[in-house]
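Researcher: Sequence recovery benchmark, item below. Answer with residues only.
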């Protein structure tokens, strides 16, 4: 079994979901008392969040590059960044290490292509929805991305940082998110990506008839697949 290197803490609420899903996935594949071999570097999200909103992405890259190098030294065989937004600096992280980085957008695109999805809605932080680093990665795989309007994007972003990252689940916010999901479907989306690792804490597949793609689940599942390399003990 390969050792997974997790860069977490963005936020810790979603990182614990990664930890649970990865261990459940390994147990499901190998049975018995098996669990995942992994090392976790959990950053202080307050530092990251402040730098994000200042637009100081080089400083965030430096923090995550140091984290990735520490995980490599600790014996990780590949890196998983437990957040969508910070894949904005994925290229810098890849250049700083000698081990592979498992990109969340690539893992998500692979699932979308299996489902023959051509047009997908995207929810996430304002950075993920509005900037090109994530959408272009999906478009490179031949998938058209539809994002909410400006007011909806502001609402989504606010709920992520002011509620979900603080562990707060609000019924009105859930209602608002589901309305936005429906509006994306009305614009032609064949499904909607939950493109922030906290969104799955608020809405689930059972809440809507629109197909939801939870990137936390997808990324964690792909990490298990890579770690086991399809080989069972």
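Model:
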């Amino acid at each position: 079994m390969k050792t997974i290197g997790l860069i977490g803490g963005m936020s810790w609420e979603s990182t614990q979901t990664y930890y649970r899903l990865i261990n459940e996935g390994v147990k499901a594949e190998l049975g018995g008392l098996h669990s995942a071999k992994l090392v976790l570097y959990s950053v202080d999200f307050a530092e990251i969040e402040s730098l994000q909103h200042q637009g100081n992405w080089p400083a965030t890259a430096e923090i995550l590059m140091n984290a990735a190098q520490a995980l490599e030294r600790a014996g990780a065989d590949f890196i998983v960044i437990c957040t969508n937004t910070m894949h904005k600096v994925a290229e810098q992280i890849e250049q700083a290490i000698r081990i592979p980085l498992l990109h969340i957008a690539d893992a998500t695109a692979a699932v979308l292509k299996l489902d023959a999805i051509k047009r997908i809605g995207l929810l996430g932080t304002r950075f993920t929805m509005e900037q090109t680093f994530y959408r272009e990665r999906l478009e490179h795989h031949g998938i058209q991305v539809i994002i909410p309007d400006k007011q909806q994007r502001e609402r989504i972003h606010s709920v992520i940082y002011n509620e979900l990252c603080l562990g707060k689940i609000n019924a009105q916010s859930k209602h608002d998110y589901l309305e936005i999901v429906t509006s994306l479907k009305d614009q032609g989306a064949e499904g909607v990506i939950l493109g922030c690792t906290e969104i799955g804490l608020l809405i689930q597949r059972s809440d809507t008839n629109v197909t939801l793609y939870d990137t936390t689940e997808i990324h964690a599942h792909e990490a298990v697949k890579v770690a086991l390399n399809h080989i069972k003990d």
